[in-house]
């Protein structure tokens, strides 16, 4: 079946850093696939190698061993089909460019004609609820709004896969809830594949259709859990569901096991 063909494939990925006091085995061996249209969350404790994994699978860092392919092609440099959103929104937008120009920049670099660019930018900015702020500068916006701009820029780029590294870790709880709902809406409206990394267990269960649980470093995939919550999610009702509590408790217990070193990799 065509839809079962993986879009992103990570095979026995390993990353050892050469630290000042010897090698640091950040990622032990990670193997997983993401299929087209999936919304996959990766959850693991701080320092377990999540950012290292994302840097390797986006071609920003060369793995020590293993392979990453996107649409069947090996990833060695940042792929055009991938867009990234990081935690540090403050550093990811250009302060001297308006919202419109920040979002347009990668499209310009790609050679999209001006009229088309304008339409795509306006649609993406509207999608994140900032249609009224097209001509403002990032420094005139709150942190949550700046992160919306970063999401709009990634969406406008029309990637095949949107990769997010703890994008909401630095915003307040209410803003975070709004941004979580925004990610699910963008995923559903645009049909983009999403790989979302977080250390927050509740967030991974609320957002994901599937949650990959990582062990502590040297990291492996401890469990690949399907999230069987209804497709329509809502901060109040979904989080109050008994099934939500069961799933989050399960993930929590598994992560505690990982911290004790009692976890084993999922067979693949
Ligand atoms: P996470 O994103 O899950 O918090 P990271 O991928 O940032 O984890 O880090 C995983 C491990 O690798 C940590 O022990 C961290 O100290 C180490 N590490 C990260 N980057 C480097 C680096 N450039 N050199 C040496 N060690 C690093
Ligand atoms: Mg990180």
Q: Which short descriptors sum up this protein?
A:
268 residues; 37% helix; binds magnesium ion; 10 strands; alpha/beta; binds adenosine-5'-diphosphate
Structural account:
β7, α6 and β8 form a beta-alpha-beta unit. This protein has a domain of 69 residues. 37% of the residues lie in helices and 24% in strands. Bound molecules: adenosine-5'-diphosphate and magnesium ion.
What layout of secondary structure does this protein have?
Layout lengths: L7 E12 L2 E13 L4 E5 L6 H8 L7 E6 L2 E2 L7 E4 L3 H4 L6 H11 L4 H14 L15 H14 L4 E5 L7 H18 L2 E6 L2 H7 L2 E5 L6 E6 L8 H5 L2 H18 L9
Parallel strand pairs: 3-8, 3-9, 6-7, 7-8
Antiparallel strand pairs: 1-2, 1-4, 4-5, 9-10
Helix pairs in contact: 3-4, 3-5, 4-5, 5-6, 7-9
The structure holds adenosine-5'-diphosphate and magnesium ion.
Per DSSP, what share of the residues sits in E-state strands of 2 or more residues? 15-25%
Radius of gyration: 19 Å
**Spatial order of the strands forming the largest sheet:** 6-7-8-3-9-10
Q: Number of DSSP strands? A: 10
Low-confidence stretches: none
Distance between the termini: 20 Å
Query: Which hetero compounds are present in the coordinates?
Result: adenosine-5'-diphosphate, magnesium ion
Q: What value does the average pLDDT take? A: 92
Shape estimate: globular
Instruction: Give the helix proportion (percent range).
Output: 25-40%
Order of helices and strands: EEEHEEEHHHHEHEHEEHH
Largest sheet: 6 strands, mixed
| DSSP summary: helix tally | 9
Structural class designation: alpha/beta
Domain ABC transporter: 8-241
Organism: Cellulomonas persica
Pfam families: ABC_tran (PF00005)
Keywords: ATP-binding, Nucleotide-binding, Transport
């Amino acid at each position: 079946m065509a839809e079962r063909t993986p879009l992103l494939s990570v095979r026995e990925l390993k990353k050892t850093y050469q630290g000042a006091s010897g090698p640091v085995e950040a990622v032990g061996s990670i193997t997983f696939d993401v299929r087209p249209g999936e919304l996959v969350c990766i959850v693991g404790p701080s320092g377990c190698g999540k950012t290292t994994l994302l840097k390797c699978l986006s071609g920003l860092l060369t793995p020590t061993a293993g392979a990453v392919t996107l649409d069947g092609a090996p990833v060695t440099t940042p792929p055009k089909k991938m867009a990234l959103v990081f935690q540090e929104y403050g550093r990811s937008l250009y302060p001297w460019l308006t919202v419109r120009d920040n979002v347009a920049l990668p499209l310009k670099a790609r050679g999209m004609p001006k009229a088309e660019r304008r339409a795509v930018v306006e649609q993406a900015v509207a999608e994140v609820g900032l249609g009224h702020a097209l001509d403002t500068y990032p420094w005139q916006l709150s942190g949550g709004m700046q992160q919306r701009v970063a999401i709009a820029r990634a969406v406008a780029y029309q990637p095949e896969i949107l990769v997010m590294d703890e994008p909401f870790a630095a915003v307040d709880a209410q803003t975070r809830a709004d941004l979580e709902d925004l990610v699910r809406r963008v995923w559903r409206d645009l049909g983009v594949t999403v790989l979302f990394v977080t250390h927050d267990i509740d967030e991974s269960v609320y957002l994901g259709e599937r949650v990959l649980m990582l062990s502590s470093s040297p990291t492996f995939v401890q469990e690949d859990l399907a999230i069987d919550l209804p497709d329509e999610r809502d901060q109040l009702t979904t989080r109050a569901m008994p099934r939500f509590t069961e799933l989050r408790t399960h993930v929590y217990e598994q992560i505690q096991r990982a911290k004790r070193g009692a976890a084993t990799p999922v067979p693949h």
